[in-house]
């Protein structure tokens, strides 16, 4: 059994805004979590690009052309990033390219899964995609990779495709792109009371091929299991050749912006059920794409548990500290918020100003970690200690940040 995990060689090419929960650290946490288990068959593969024309297959051409305009050319626009939808989504110079890496990796995973070369795959890149509609960027998303990969599987392989979405937010973009696609089944569970407030049970697609199951807040695993039992029954009848999953981990009770309160055992149940149905209906061909999930400890814990669950396997934690996926480097945040002040003592310097705290790389002034508001730091010691330990080691490792956010999140 070979399972591909796709990662970006430079997770920082779509930088976050400082103190924002959607940040490159999310993919570091998910990948470090996967590197720190003893699951046989996992193979880490560098992400591969899709052509921009692949995005035009379901998105409006004008919209893609607007995304291709160089950043900083429009009146009043910053050189470092462009705000796309009322402030929620920002586009830096390489953001579209990063989104195309996610799509290219999904396409590659679909091709290899359809040919039988691999059993399945997870694409652990950023930005996510399931909120991007035909003509609009929304909710940190630019292009709807899961829907575009479904179109790729349909047009290139003649496959019947199912797209399943368990992110806490409705996959409104996926739904928009797949609305008229008769041969693609799309099913989603999501909170009925969270943005974007779409995805009612009445929203069924042009051919009745869409199944939305909104869930009420705080309903936890009981409602979720009953919803997914219903979805799996429809899935068996639909009998796909391949399943593409929009895997968001923000329905977890520890997620800072969630309200469904799913527990680890609920995610485990979902993954194991999904793996079993997948083996029954399509030889286990399941390709997953990382959507939301804003708690770093949840991503570190649950992404590996999800993959093992899909495989029907068990695993032990191992220590891989210092491995390539833990290293926080580059420029994870768009520059310009804080002036870089170099300091000669430590490579990784703790800094504090205006009630904000952060860790900065003294070699190039880049911010490497800024705790979002939901991380409650009552003193300066925890970040100071992390910076000092990282300076001694020469690497700022995501595992230290995961530990910090587990204690203070
Ligand atoms: Zn989400």
TrEMBL record:
GO terms for biological process: epigenetic regulation of gene expression. Pfam families: Hist_deacetyl. The keyword Hydrolase applies. Residues 20-308 form the Histone deacetylase domain. CDD domains: HDAC_classII_2. The keyword Iron does not apply. Keywords: Hydrolase. One of its GO terms (molecular function) is histone deacetylase activity. Gene3D superfamilies: Histone deacetylase domain (3.40.800.20). Its EC number is 3.5.1.48. It is an enzyme of class 3 (hydrolase). Belongs to the histone deacetylase family. This is Acetylspermidine deacetylase, Deacetylase. It comes from Salipiger mucosus DSM 16094.
């Amino acid at each position: 059994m070979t399972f591909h995990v796709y990662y970006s060689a430079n997770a920082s090419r779509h930088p976050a805004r400082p103190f924002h929960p959607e940040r490159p650290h999310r993919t570091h946490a998910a990948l470090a979590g996967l590197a720190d288990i003893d699951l046989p068959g996992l193979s880490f593969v560098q992400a591969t690009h899709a052509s921009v024309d692949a995005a035009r297959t379901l998105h409006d051409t004008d919209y893609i052309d607007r995304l291709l305009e160089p950043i900083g050319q429009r009146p009043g626009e910053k050189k470092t990033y462009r705000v796309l939808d009322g402030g929620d989504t920002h586009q830096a110079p390489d953001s579209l390219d990063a989104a195309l890496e996610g799509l290219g990796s999904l396409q590659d995973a679909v091709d290899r899964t359809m040919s039988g070369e691999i059993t399945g795959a997870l694409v652990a890149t950023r930005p996510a995609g399931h909120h991007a509609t035909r003509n609009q960027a929304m909710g940190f998303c630019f292009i709807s990779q899961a829907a575009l990969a479904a179109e790729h599987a349909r047009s290139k392989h003649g496959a019947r495709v199912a797209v399943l979405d368990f992110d806490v937010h409705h996959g409104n973009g996926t739904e928009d792109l797949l609305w008229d696609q008769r041969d693609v089944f799309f099913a989603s569970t999501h909170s009925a009371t969270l943005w974007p407030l779409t995805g009612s049970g009445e929203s069924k697609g042009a051919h009745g091929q869409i199944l939305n199951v909104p869930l009420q807040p705080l309903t936890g695993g009981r409602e979720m299991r009953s919803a997914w039992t219903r979805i799996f029954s429809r899935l068996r009848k639909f009998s796909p050749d391949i399943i593409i999953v929009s895997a968001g981990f923000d329905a977890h009770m520890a997620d800072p912006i969630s309200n469904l309160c799913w527990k680890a055992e609920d995610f485990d149940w979902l993954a194991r059920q999904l793996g079993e149905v997948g083996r029954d209906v399509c030889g286990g061909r399941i390709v997953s794409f990382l959507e939301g999930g804003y708690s770093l400890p949840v991503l570190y814990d649950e992404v590996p548990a999800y993959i093992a669950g899909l495989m029907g396997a068990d695993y032990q934690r191992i220590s891989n500290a210092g491995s390539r996926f833990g290293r926080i480097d580059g420029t994870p945040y768009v520059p310009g918020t804080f002036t870089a002040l170099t300091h000669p003592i430590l490579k990784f310097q703790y800094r504090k100003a205006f009630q904000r705290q952060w860790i900065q790389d003294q070699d190039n002034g880049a911010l490497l970690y800024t705790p979002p508001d939901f991380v409650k730091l009552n003193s300066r010691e925890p970040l100071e200690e992390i910076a000092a330990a990282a300076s001694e080691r020469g690497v700022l490792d995501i595992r230290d940040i995961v530990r910090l956010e587990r204690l203070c999140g």
